[in-house]
Specification:
This protein has 195 residues and is α/β, with parallel strands linked by helices. The protein is built from seven helices and eight strands, in the order αβαββααβββααβαβ. The protein is globular and about 60 Å long.
Length: 195
């Protein structure tokens, strides 16, 4: 009998771990446009590790009250070649509500989360990468207004959700560093990378 339980356990474990991780990249380069080549280099590393599974969202402020972001599929063969020009296009900074809405909309559109039995259920593991300026991240309270809200509202689980926050931080400021350091130890599945 214990062999049957072991077999069932192995089958379930194999199913869970065989699901491909979906990579979501969100870029706000409204302040980082003068460092577009560095931004493109950092994004390229994430795309190369993604196995071409997922999408990139180039954020922008709402236009006429509607979401105004640009979406790119990571499977696109030309994406890496076009990355520098994509990152060079200056966009307006987004309010946290717009960032949340853009990411959550694409998570639902790509069926990474489904509404089952009157509640959200995470179907596919998600690897979220946010590329932001350090000042935008701290002053707009992106951690609480976007990341924590995504986790709570979409019912993302620690086992199936990882987030890396890539901060453009060329000139260190004490107030930003303190805020960033406070966040670093809040959750194991959330990492901060400064470049």
């Amino acid at each position: 009998m214990k062999y049957i339980y072991t077999l069932i356990f192995l089958i379930i474990t194999n199913f869970v771990f065989s699901q491909e991780v979906e990579t979501i990249i969100y870029i706000d380069n409204s302040i980082s446009v003068n460092r577009a080549s560095k931004l493109a280099s950092e994004v390229e590393k994430v795309i190369e590790e993604s196995n071409d599974i997922g999408f990139l969202i180039m954020g922008d402020a709402n236009k006429d009250g509607k979401l105004n972001y640009k979406l790119y599929d990571l499977e696109n063969d030309n994406l890496l070649d076009d990355l520098s020009s994509i990152c060079l296009k200056e966009r307006q900074t987004q309010r946290p509500q717009v960032v949340f809405k853009a990411i959550s909309t694409e998570i639902y559109n790509n069926e990474l989360i489904k509404f089952i039995d009157n509640r959200n259920k995470q179907i596919i593991p998600i690897d979220l990468h946010l590329f932001l300026n350090a000042s935008t991240f701290v002053l707009k309270k992106i951690y609480t207004k976007v990341i924590e809200r995504l986790i709570v509202d979409l019912k993302l689980t620690d086992e199936r959700f990882n987030c890396t926050i890539h901060l453009d931080y060329p000139k260190e400021k004490e107030q930003y560093t303190e805020s960033i350091d406070e966040i670093k130890n809040k959750r194991l599945n959330i990492k901060i990378n400064r470049y």
